[in-house]
């Protein structure tokens, strides 16, 4: 299958958008060569595996490609980085045809095109199940320092972009299409499903928040509770979250059965790929306007305090940071 | 298992060498942040999968880690890049314990330490079998331009570092320990096995050859025939190889049964992770000295000609470039 694989790679590369100006040597050599005027880069790796992060045929193959690249780009969004290059390690099971793999590639190409990413290299190997490990490199934009998880200060406002709980609700819809509540409108249903099948990394918001004075950011891939916990620990602050202020995805309550259960999906469900940000309260108004320009809301959901470092609590003191999410999705424990 | 995974990552990171000066933010944030004085970087991704590139328990777990990182670094060697950062996506099957995964990490750490690589990030997910996708970033050393596959000129000498055929011979030894020829000495046997269990990326030779006027380089991961074919196609030249000049690994002929069959292993066997280089013949003497300083030979095995572009032939005109290697190892079809 060696020569077939080289053909496959050539066909995959054909479908990708042309590499951007930073790429001096793209796919097809031992390594890609990139050049950057900026000194600092942000690099992340994120893998998704069939049966762990998605199932077939519930996920159409292009959606697998979209999700793999969007998930990695979400990490760059959380750094306030400008997306640059992506490198894809594709594990291909024998049960998939070359056309199937090209359909995965179409999903990668769609996101790469939309987000301005150069897919500059990759590797294709046989594997027992479909899997994609995506490494993304982002670049510090001049004058906009990259933002880590570790800079939150007591007194900071805590805010999230977009809506929460939609990705977990969409998983329910995908797992049991016939069990979906009848009152869910077609458009609401479509938008919920898109949280799994076409997640949108909040790159524009990440840049706007980094430029607007964010002290700390993280993307919400493991659920608000767990990810807020990561940020709280890295920053050495406590976070207090007003659960009533969580911006719940439209339709999540219908799917979950109640608003309270939709809030549980938001806290523990993961994969919403929204950004959680801590910033000085006086910067919130401008940040909200800047994020709105990117097309989605920024909602204040709490504040950072001098409480027990590393903890996340609701206003009744219930702890949220260890809310696990221990089902087929697996954990996005990755970093860096 | 979410919290267990975060613990595992912390324990893995503990074992790694401390990140180098380029790493501003290492493992533990959404992305690693690196800074480089040089403008150009070389990036490659290389995945190895249990049952495809290695089998358990024939491969001790640290050897899996060593092989994964060494294979990716070999691509950087072929660019003449200075190794910089590595990012690891680890797929962990349920059958392996945390201690098992740490043993894989020990192998990664050993190579990272020896080669001066900062493991700056990673991702751990459940997967059906043990798999590692390794992204490595290398840096152009000031004054030593990165070398692609595409610059060979008719008249160039073709040379290889080290020895060939040893990795394929070692696979035979691993697959059938009892069937090994009795006359193989312990030390020879140990050195052959190391070609699989502790492969050494030729980073010092790659830098020396890049500095010494190499026109084109590639690492030999798919076998001399296939990889010479990649280089010949990228450069638009023909390569003629004198099979009698191939530097065969000591013991390969005993394992293969004859010298001729050992040459077949060298041409079609792959995973030797030596460098194939094209350079002007007048540079060969100095290049040979420079590579010898790194501790291994450089052997002239042929020349680049104006024959049919993309072809590789022996001196009898037999074509070598499509020699496949279609067994459990799978194809290292990756690039960039």
**Greatest contact between two chains:** A-B, 83 and 83 residues
Helix content of chain A: 25-40%
Query: Which stretches of chain A of 5+ consecutive residues score pLDDT under 50?
Result: 324-336
Largest sheet: number of strands, sense, barrel closure of chain A? 6 strands, mixed
* Broad structural category of chain A: alpha+beta
- SSE topology string of chain A: HEEEHEHEEEHHHEHEHHEHEE
Oligomer: homodimer
Number of strands of chain A: 12
Widest sheet: strand ordering of chain A: 8-10-7-11-9-12
Distance between the termini of chain A: 33 Å
Strand content of chain A: 15-25%
Computed over alpha carbons, the radius of gyration of chain A is 20 Å
Task: Label this structure with key terms.
alpha+beta; 4-stranded mixed sheet; homodimer; 336 residues; 22% strand; 6-stranded mixed sheet; 12 strands; disordered C terminus; globular
Any chance you could write out the topology, listing elements then pairs?
The structure is a homodimer of 336-residue chains.
Chain A: H1 2-15, E1 23-25, E2 32-35, E3 40-49, H2 61-77, E4 82-92, H3 98-115, E5 118-126, E6 131-139, E7 157-161, H4 166-175, H5 186-197, H6 203-211, E8 216-219, H7 224-235, E9 238-241, H8 252-256, H9 259-268, E10 275-279, H10 284-293, E11 298-305, E12 312-314
Parallel strand pairs in A: 4-5, 9-12
Antiparallel strand pairs in A: 1-2, 3-6, 4-6, 7-10, 7-11, 8-10, 9-11
């Amino acid at each position: 299958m060696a020569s077939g694989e080289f053909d496959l790679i050539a066909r995959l590369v054909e479908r990708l958008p042309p590499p951007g100006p930073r790429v001096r040597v793209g796919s097809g050599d031992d390594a890609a060569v990139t050049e950057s005027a900026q000194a600092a880069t942000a690099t992340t790796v994120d893998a998704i595996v069939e049966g762990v992060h998605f199932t077939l045929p519930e996920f159409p193959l292009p959606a697998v490609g979209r999700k793999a690249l969007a998930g990695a780009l979400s990490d760059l969004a959380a750094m306030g980085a400008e997306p640059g290059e992506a490198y894809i390690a594709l594990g291909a099971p024998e049960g998939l045809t070359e056309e199937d793999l090209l359909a995965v590639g179409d999903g990668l190409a769609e996101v790469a095109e939309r987000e301005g990413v150069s897919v500059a290299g990759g590797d294709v190997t046989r594997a027992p199940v479909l899997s994609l490990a995506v490494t993304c490199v982002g670049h510090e934009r001049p004058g906009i320092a990259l933002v880590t998880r570790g800079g939150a200060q007591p007194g900071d406002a805590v805010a999230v972009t977009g809506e929460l709980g939609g990705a977990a609700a969409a998983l329910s819809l995908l797992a049991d299409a016939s069990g979906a509540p009848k009152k869910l409108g077609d458009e609401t249903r479509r938008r919920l499903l898109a949280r799994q099948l076409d997640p949108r990394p909040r790159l524009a918001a990440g840049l706007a928040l980094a430029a607007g004075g964010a002290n700390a950011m993280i993307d919400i891939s493991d659920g608000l509770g767990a990810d807020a916990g990561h940020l709280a620990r890295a920053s050495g602050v406590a976070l207090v979250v007003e659960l009533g202020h969580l911006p719940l995805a439209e339709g999540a309550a219908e799917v979950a059965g109640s608003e309270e259960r939709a809030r549980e999906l938001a806290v523990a469900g993961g994969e919403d790929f929204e950004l959680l940000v801590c910033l000085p309260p006086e910067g919130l108004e401008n940040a909200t306007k800047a994020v709105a320009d990117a097309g989605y809301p920024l909602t204040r959901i709490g504040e950072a305090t001098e409480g027990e470092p590393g903890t996340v609590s609701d206003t009744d003191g219930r702890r949220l940071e260890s809310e696990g999410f221990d089902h087929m999705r697996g954990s996005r424990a990755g970093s860096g």
